[in-house]
Amino acid sequence: MSARPHLAGRRASLRRTLVLLLLATVATMCLALSLITHISVSSQLHTQLDAQLQRAAQRAAGPGSAVGPDDAGGADDAGGAGGAGGAGTPGGAPGSGEFELTAVLDADGAVVSASWRDAGGTVHAISDLAPLQAAVADTDGDRGTVDLAADGLGEYTFRLGRGPGGQQVLAGLPLDPLRSTLARLDLTLVGASLLALLATGILGSLIVRRTLRPLEEVSAVAGQVADMPLARGDVVIASRVDDRIARSGTEAGEVGRALNLLLENVEGALETRQRTEEGMRRFIADASHELRTPLTAIRGYTEMIRLTEELTPHGEQSVERLEAQSHRMTALVEDLLLLARLDEGAQAALTEVDLAEIVLDAVMDAQVTAPDHEWRIDVPEETIQVRGDARQLSQIVVNLLSNARKHTPLGTTVRAGLAAEQRSAVLRVEDDGPGIDAARTGDVFARFTRADAARSGSEGTTGLGLPIVKAITEAHGGAIEVDSRPGRTVFTVRLPLAD
Predict the structure, then answer these.
(1) Could you tell me which residues come within 8 angstroms of residue 216 by beta carbon, excluding any fewer than 6 positions away?
(2) Which stretches does UniProt call biased (Low complexity) (predicted)?
(3) How far apart are the first and last CA of the chain?
């Protein structure tokens, strides 16, 4: 069974996704609100600045003046404001506004003089008129901007006007206060948005965690069942979703209720399978025990006939055939009994066994019984100790070598290798025969599976050799695998080393 992914990682991923979606939504809303607020306040401030600049230009031009092509209708009001202020004169003195700029131009549009009023009301002359002159020259209409950094004033927006006597004047207001106000507004919006995102992240995480808690409990139950060995044996699934969660009305409750019903069905199916397997094992064991007696009698009578009767050549051949089949049937019965005992979990007394010695003995026996094959062995000089039953471990090696012999043509080279790798004894039996059909590779350890035509030899097989190897290996805490292709087939057995 493959390892189940870590449950906490999946839960954290789900929570993170939901919280990130919530944060993205709130961030989008904060960004939209910030943009709308910035644009609205900026528009309002620019409108106010335009109105102040209009009044400043009216004051600078004096009563009855005209400022801009569209301001004739408002000249009286502006002039009234300027007159009331008492600050607007054609001489170029700035009006009453703080940091207000006033300049006088001659008939050719050249700036004659310029001054500005500080916060205390003191009027200061502009020393460098070149930037102001260049800005007036570049003005397309009656509006423009000028940078008066040389006088430490920053950037100004100005407007041109003309007094009753035809004298052209300029009035300006600084842009720094407007920009400073917008900057403070933007910082406030950014700070408020960050606080909103922080609060959303904390509260959202708590809410999502609380909301997903029932689903996490359902997932935990499913994970516990997924980790249970359900393939064989008497299995009891005790894990269930709590009744307070597994109720209708919520998504997690519906999933929990469905999972409980599924587990009940699975448990019933496993109980049925277990009863069937136990009945089959009892039948095989009982039938095998019952067959032992008649098979022994058949072999005994066969030997007695050969010793006491005068047989024709045909009769001798029949008796030999009868004896051979009785031996084959006896071997089949013994294999079935062994598999039945292994399925029941029965295990012989375990001792420390030198696996290298078992491999050497098995290969030497194979060289005698099958001299038409080439046998190679690779066993280390030191002992490789495993804990197990010596007779069963010997059967692993013998069955693998016999499988290679029976299902490969004459002259095939068979190699048996043994090594210690990472606290495991690794046995490899390799041959250079035609290989196993890829469609049958996954079934080679199934009981009563016969070899495909490519690896079939002249000897009949019962299809229990490799299943017995697999059962014994797993009973000793090991594992077996096969890798086959034309010209190379390898069976690899891994058994834990003795402590």
Answers:
(1) 11
(2) 60-72
(3) 26
Kindly report the pTM of this predicted structure. Answer: 0.49
Instruction: Give residue limits of the domains in the chain.
Output: 1-213, 228-346, 351-496
Looking at residue 261, its amino acid is L
Whether 228-346 and 351-496 share one fold: the answer is no
Please give the Cα distance from 401 to 403 (Å, whole number): 5
Using a CB cutoff of 8 Å and minimum separation of 24, what contacts does 74-78 make? Answer: 78/54
Asked if residues 101 and 129 have their Cβ atoms less than 8 Å apart, the reply is: no
Topology of domain 228-346, per CATH?
Answer: Helix Hairpins (1.10.287)
Query: Of the candidates 120, 123, 73, which has an alpha carbon nearest to the alpha carbon of residue 103?
Result: 123
Task: Dump pLDDT digits (tens) for 132-186.
Answer: 888 888 887 788 888 887 777 888 998 888 776 677 888 899 998 899 999 999 9
Architecture of domain 351-496: 2-Layer Sandwich (3.30)
Distances (CA, A) of 158 to 91, 244, 379: 17, 74, 100
- Region for residue 121 given its phi and psi (left: phi exceeds 0; alpha: psi -120 to 50; beta: otherwise): left
Please answer whether residues 355 and 380 qualify as being in contact, where contact means their C-beta atoms are separated by less than 8 angstroms.
no
